[in-house]
Amino acid sequence: MIRTKSQADAHVYSQLKQMKSKQERMLKGYSFAKIYHDIKEYKIAANHLLDFLSVKDNFAPAHKLLGQIYEATKADNAQILKAYKKSYDIDSTQTDILLKICELYSQMPADNDVKELELLLVGSSTWDMFLAV
């Protein structure tokens, strides 16, 4: 298991030098981002993840990880929300993401976002859970 930045750097470097194309390197970005996220090297993780998303933007776990990185770095709630919403838009079975989106909206000033949240929830399997409360 990789526990330090130097171990992560060595592992990523050994992987990258085996890859022949930029596309291949970018597609490994999600794996590299997870490694750096786990050791709390969020800036490096975000860089690898954004490379990955530039070639494969429809992968929900990558957008979820981006939201987690933004949260860990205390980014703006709107930026965090955008990443989580993109993940949920791709895969609406992620109830944990839906709850995170609701939590983030609850921390924001009330305005038209309430309507947007309602539209997100209606039609969701989680909507019944909110009606039951």
How would you describe this protein?
This protein has 133 residues and is mainly α. It has 2 domains: 56 residues, Alpha Horseshoe (Serine Threonine Protein Phosphatase 5, Tetratricopeptide repeat); 69 residues, Alpha Horseshoe (Serine Threonine Protein Phosphatase 5, Tetratricopeptide repeat), CATH 1.25.40.10. It is 72% helix and 0% strand. The chain is built from 9 helices and no strands. α3 runs antiparallel to α4 and α5 packs antiparallel against α6. The longest helix has 14 residues. The relative contact order is 0.09. The mean pLDDT is 88.
Question: Which features characterize this protein?
Answer:
133 residues, mainly alpha, Serine Threonine Protein Phosphatase 5, Tetratricopeptide repeat, elongated, TPR-like_helical_dom_sf
Radius of gyration, in angstroms, nearest whole number: 17 Å
Q: Count up the domains.
A: 2
> Structural class, judged by helices and strands?
mainly alpha
- What is the CATH H-level superfamily of the largest domain? Tetratricopeptide repeat domain
